[in-house]
Amino acid sequence: MAGHSKWANIKRQKAVVDAKKSKTFTQLSRAIIVAARSGIPDPAGNFQLRTAIDKAKAAGIPNDNIERAIAKGAGTFSDSANFEAIRYEGYGPGGVAILIEALTDNRNRTAADLRVAFSKNGGNLGETGCVSWMFAQKGVCVVEGVVDEEQILEASLEGGAESYEMTEDEIAEVFTDVANLENLNQTLKDKGLQVTDAELRWIPSNSVEVTDPEQARSLFKLIDTLEGLDDVQNVTSNFEMAENLMALSIV
Length: 251
Description:
44% of the residues lie in helices and 24% in strands. It is of the alpha+beta class. It has a four-stranded antiparallel sheet. Strands 5-6-4-7 form a four-stranded antiparallel sheet, with helices on both faces. A two-stranded parallel sheet has the order 8-10. Helix 2 runs antiparallel to helix 3 (47-58) and helix 2 (22-38) packs parallel to helix 4. The protein is globular, with a radius of gyration of 18 Å. The protein starts with a helix and ends in a 5-residue tail after the last helix.
C-alpha cells in the first residue's frame, strides 16, 4: 500500500489549496446530499453524513450551504436535480488502472466528459468491471500526531482494524472492513488519537510500475483533468513510481 498511501498524502496536501476552489464546494455539497438521501438526514445517526459535514466544515463551506445540502438530500428543499453515485473505470498511460467515483444528475454528460478527458491524456474509458476487480474497498482512518507506534497498534487492534501503516512522520493510516469504519473511528478517538479523516477508499491488489517521466506527467495530467470535472468525487489508480517521479505531480 506504500505507493498508494504516498499518493493519498500528496492529494491531501493539494486539497488544502483546492479547498478554496468552488469545485471542491460542489463536490462536498453533493456528498452531503447523497449521504442524507442514503440514510437518515441526521448526522447523529448517519456516519456517512457526519463525515461529509466534517469535511465540508474543514473546507470552509458556510453552515447555510451545509443545511441546504442536507435539506436537498432529505427532500425538504425544492430542487429538480437528482444526483446518483456511479463508478466509471478505465486505463491511463502505461496501462495504469483508474477508478472514478462520480455523483451526477446526467449520466450522458458525465460519461462524455470522462471519455474526452481520457482520450486527450493518453488513456481510454473502459467498460464496467474492466479494472474494478483489481481493487477492494476499505475503510481508512487517517491519524495525525502519532508519537507512540505502540499506541496506534493497540488502538487499531481494539478497533478491529486489519492493518495500519505509518505514511509520514507522525501520520498513520489505519485500514479496516467497510462495515467497521465507524467503530474504528470512534475507538481511535476514545483512545485519545487525533483522527483527521475517516473515509472509504479503493485499495489496489496489484500495481503497475511507472518509470518513464513522460508517462508519469501524462498520468498526473489525466488524473488532474478527471479530478477537475464537477461530477467527479474521487479518482483512484494502481500505479507505483519512484519518489523523484512522484514529485512531478506537485509541479
